[in-house]
Amino acid sequence: MPLVRRLLIVHTNDIHGRVEALTRAATLVDRVRAENPDAAVVYLDAGDVEETTSRLSSLTKGVAMHRLLDAAGCRAVAVGNGAVLRYGVEVLAEQAAAVPYPHLAANLFRDGQLVDGVQARALLDVDGVRLGLIGLTPTGFGYIYEDIFGCERPPAVP
């Protein structure tokens, strides 16, 4: 009979350029790992790490924030609405190229293809535990995504 390990997911979202929040997250991830040596621990982010009112984030269009997420041990991010609304959909490729983890947005298309820089899904190995992820970006801003940025989104499933 195979051994089943616990999987602990630590996640952040809506950091909005607060660098100190990332240092706290990194400390928390380290503490969770230390307190749970028998568990597989993964750190994920659910979007909106960037912010135009933060100088570091604004000058790099969020790229520096993604590098800090990587340094904090983040393994994957879901694309939030912030990057697209602030900098346009083109910034996603630049942000994704700056770090080794996947940027997930299975519902954000241009010309029938996922926008540059994003993936629909990812399969991670977390200390021997296989973890499948699917990322979705918020759909409440449809008219902006479609009318301004030329994106298509598949219809929501009820």
Structural features, described:
The radius of gyration is 16 Å and the shape is globular. The model has no long low-confidence stretch (mean pLDDT 91). It has 6 helices and 8 strands; from the N terminus they run E-H-E-H-H-E-H-H-E-E-E-E-E-H. With 158 residues, the protein is an alpha/beta fold. The strands form 3 sheets. A 4-stranded parallel beta sheet has the order 1-2-3-4. The protein has a two-stranded antiparallel sheet with strand order 5-6. A hairpin with a 2-residue loop joins strand 5 and strand 6.
Which blocks of ≥5 consecutive residues have pLDDT under 50? none
Q: Give the strand tally.
A: 8
Distance between the termini: 38 Å
Please give the radius of gyration in angstroms.
16 Å
Task: Spell the H/E element sequence.
Answer: EHEHHEHHEEEEEH
Largest sheet: 4 strands, parallel
Strand order of the largest sheet: 1-2-3-4
Estimate what percentage of residues fall within beta strands.
15-25%
Return the average pLDDT rounded to an integer.
91
Q: What is the percent of helical residues?
A: 25-40%
What structural class do you assign from the helix and strand content? Answer: alpha/beta
Q: Please tell me what the overall shape is.
A: globular
Short description:
The chain is an alpha/beta fold. It is built from six helices and eight strands, in the order βαβααβααβββββα. It has helices at 19-35, 55-59, 63-71, 81-87, 91-97, 142-148; strands at residues 7-12, 40-45, 74-78, 103-104, 109-110, 113-114, 121-126, 129-134.
